[in-house]
Specification:
Layout: H1 2-29, H2 34-38, H3 46-55, H4 62-74, H5 88-123, H6 128-142, H7 145-159, H8 183-190, H9 195-230, H10 233-240, H11 245-282, H12 288-298, H13 301-329, H14 331-335
Helix pairs in contact: 1-13, 5-6, 5-9, 5-11, 6-9, 7-9, 7-11, 8-9, 9-11, 10-11, 11-12, 11-13, 12-13
């Protein structure tokens, strides 16, 4: 198992290095820089602008800027935000709990609906249930997040008035210090009556929007895996012994079919974090995604570079954990050469 772990860790190193280089170069291909953005501010002389360019290192060759950036990352320094003058790591850790909370509930909804839907579609293969469920899954996978989010806001919030439009909590009714950064936990710790339900109310709509695509992927993966397992000899043997359909499907088939599904769920974390950028922007959710979008408009290079690399590190870590879990579930994977 140790050898398997070392091999997987070794594979993450070139991925991280390649992403670091691509991120650095792609950000600088965007027209303008932090100095150009500040030209609109009154009272800044050309001399002051040149001084700012020198302080930020933007007057150095691009290769020197990259080496300085890589050297900082190697020492755990993600830089300081040009706008807020706050260390990037501190800003990220302050905002990341909001993104984790949204991502967790989106995946919870996607799994709770996707797995039973895929299982039913496999059991009822070829029926109207199968065709309907897979048609809905394909539709959910094809819908752009920004369009789906705006549609739900118009219907659920503006028309039916069932859910709030934006934010994490109604700041007019409730206010409490962010102890953990997770709105649901902090609302409980505050002891304010109704605060937890209000925070949960704000979480429902963005979680549904963010969880739609993973829900479709999980449903289709579960169906495919279940169909394969249902054709295995041990399933036919269980049926021949007279076991009930519920026991055969739930105990024998589903447990083995979930192995690739667990892998798929882990790999959806990257999709969720990418989708969170749009979802948080649509719903004014104060997380990392909204922070990155604002950093693009402000050309905040350190915030963009550091934020993207920290998110990439989280995705790589989750994929590594999925690989290790898969290796524990299926010993043939970790012993394969």
């Amino acid at each position: 198992m140790l050898r398997f772990l070392i091999k997987r860790l070794a594979l993450t190193v070139p991925t991280f290095l390649a992403l670091m280089f691509v991120t650095f170069m792609m950000i600088r291909l965007v027209p303008g820089d932090p100095i150009e953005v500040r030209r609109g501010e009154r009272g800044i002389s050309p001399e002051r602008l040149e001084q700012l360019r020198h302080e930020m290192g933007l007057d150095q060759p691009i290769w020197q800027q990259f080496l300085d950036y890589a050297n900082g990352l190697a020492h755990g320094d993600f830089g300081v935000s040009i706008v807020s003058r706050t260390p990037i790591l501190h800003e990220f850790l302050t905002l990341f709990p909001a993104t984790i909370e949204l991502t967790f509930f989106a995946m919870l909804i996607a799994t709770a609906i996707g797995v039973p839907a895929g299982m039913m579609a496999a059991v009822k293969r070829g029926s109207i249930y199968d065709q309907t469920l897979m048609g809905v899954a394909l539709t959910g996978y094809s819908m752009p997040i920004f369009w789906w989010g705006l549609i739900l806001i118009l219907v659920m919030s503006n028309t039916l008035h069932l859910t709030p439009v934006s934010g994490r909590v109604d700041l007019i009714k409730y206010f409490y210090p962010p102890v953990t950064g997770f709105a649901l936990i902090d609302s409980l710790l505050s002891g304010q009556k109704g605060a937890f339900l209000d925070a949960l109310h704000h979480l429902i709509l963005p979680s549904i929007v963010l969880g739609t695509v993973p829900m479709a992927v999980i449903a289709r993966m579960t169906r495919s895996s279940m169909l394969e397992v249902l054709e295995e000899d041990y399933v036919r043997t269980a049926r021949a012994k007279g076991l009930s359909a519920r026991r055969v499907i739930g105990l024998h088939a589903l447990r083995n079919a979930l192995i690739p599904v667990i892998t798929s769920i882990g790999l959806q974390v990257g999709t969720l974090l990418a989708g969170a950028v749009l979802t948080e922007t649509i719903f004014s959710w104060p997380g990392v995604g909204k922070w990155l979008i604002e950093s693009i408009s402000r050309r905040d290079y350190p915030a963009l570079q550091g934020g993207i690399m920290l998110i990439a590190a989280c995705v790589i870590l989750v994929n590594l954990l999925v690989d290790l879990m898969y290796g524990l579930i299926n010993p043939r994977i970790r012993h394969a050469k």
